[in-house]
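protien #1 (seq + structre)
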Amino acid sequence: MIFTTSHSNSLSDYIIDYTITVLCGLLLLFAGPTAMSQAIPAIDNKGTIHTIFNGMSDWALENSYVQGQYVVRDNAIYHANAAIPVNTPFAVSSSGATWTLISASMSSTLRASVGPSFVLENEHSNRKLYIEPNGSVTIDANRLVDGFSLMLINHSGEDSNITFTNFTGVFNLNCAKSNITTNANFTLDYLESVLVTVTIYDTDKHLNIHCMQLGFQQVANEMMFDGTDDTDTANDAYYYISKLVNGAWKVTRLDKNDVNADAVADISNNPSVTTQPTTLGACSALSF
């Protein structure tokens, strides 16, 4: 049932004509003729004319909102906890210039398609994001809180670079086992999925990329060195096998005299080595 009535009222901050509409149990306030969204001029108590948005509209960073304003964002409905100035980043909380979730999302998944980069926000937590053809994703630490998590799924038809910014550290877990803080992006292969989470330790904010271990591993650029091929006799007892496993380098040292004495070096015990060792000298210099 829809009940509508119109009034003219004087508020302490704004003087506006408005329409009250009761829709599905929600009391919505609209300026002028009944509409789901309307930009209206408003005069504050100093006589200054402002443009504010009343009713329910799609959220936009460049808009200002009054307390109790309803917006639609990612197919979910929110209302403003207080007046929200223009250029205020969207944040979900219980007070201040933030938003409260009113309805659950009308869609179980999010989609990053052609157009501006899809920027992750707190309200996207515990969701799935499909990267479609020509879609891109940005992960900004300043927009996310401790405990944020999201599943990224690459349906784009090609490998996709995921951009991140403002994190203290970014860690690729499980597969590459590497700290990629110095880079500005990580690659999500076509038809690959990863879980991304945000954790905060004191003032440090970390992005964790949880790679899903597959039942098989991709091995590439495999090469073998005999320790006797250099002048250092300390290496004579070993073979060294260097390779890339799912894109991450790994060197196995085989003891010629003891098959149970193999040792492994990778970026976890050699954090300063960021590329695959491809010479006998580079392999023998590793920490095992």
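ok now protien #2
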Amino acid sequence: MVEKSISSYGDLTSQSPFNSDKLVVNVGPTYMCFIVRLHGKEEIAAFELFEFDKVLDNWYDVFYNVKNQSKILDRSYNHTTVLYNMPESVLIPAEKYSAESASDFLTTVFGEHFNQLINTDTFNINEPVVNAYGIKRSLFDIVGSNFLMVEARHYYSMLLNVLLHDSVLPSGTFLRLEFYKNTLVLVLIHERRLQLVQQYNITNADDMLYYVLSVLEQYRYKPSEVQLEVAGIIDTRTQDYDFLRKLFPHISFDTLNTAIALPELVEQYPAHYLSPFFKVLA
């Protein structure tokens, strides 16, 4: 079932159905987010977040239900940025990259995948890196047939570029946890060098805690030495947060640039709920 979880439209309904505003589509295994940016401005004109059960292969039914509920998709946009927040992603040093190596790396890490296309991003994290990632063919076809002038990127590429070039990134060991519906994105950085970025399926607080502690044990970091940043759909009254609060003495929530966000969203939701969707906006 597809559920519209969060929405805000500003003055979108008063605009022409054909406009020069920009559309940002952020899609993960259990969510699809749409953000409209005003032409020539930084401000956000509209926001929608849809959540659903994990899509294994066929995206057509999910997108059909999303489109039927979306007000943002009632309009056409001259430019669309699509951010794929999918787990099948490997970072390869640029000098070791080739089309064959990308396919080999993805198969080695995630196993053989069928009905999947491979796309790449190139960016710098201390050195040039290629992010090779898989996209389900059904999702790729939906994007190609429903949006104009598409620029595709992987979410990790955008997030890491922001984090590792942030002048206020804490020294020492930094751990960022992003919570989505039944999904956790984990980023581990030590002394401004990336250690790990990975996505996990979670159904309860025990799952989350297991993956977090396993990663820290693997890299031999103690929770007391880690600066934890929390973002995404997590309530401070839940067991997930209670576990984290007791385990990590240095914990903070990600913030939101309220200058560009819709006032209605800022008033109704904690900043960390929306920060993953806004943080990567160029």
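Helices lie at 60-69, 99-110, 137-146, 155-164, 205-219, 239-247, 263-268, 271-279.
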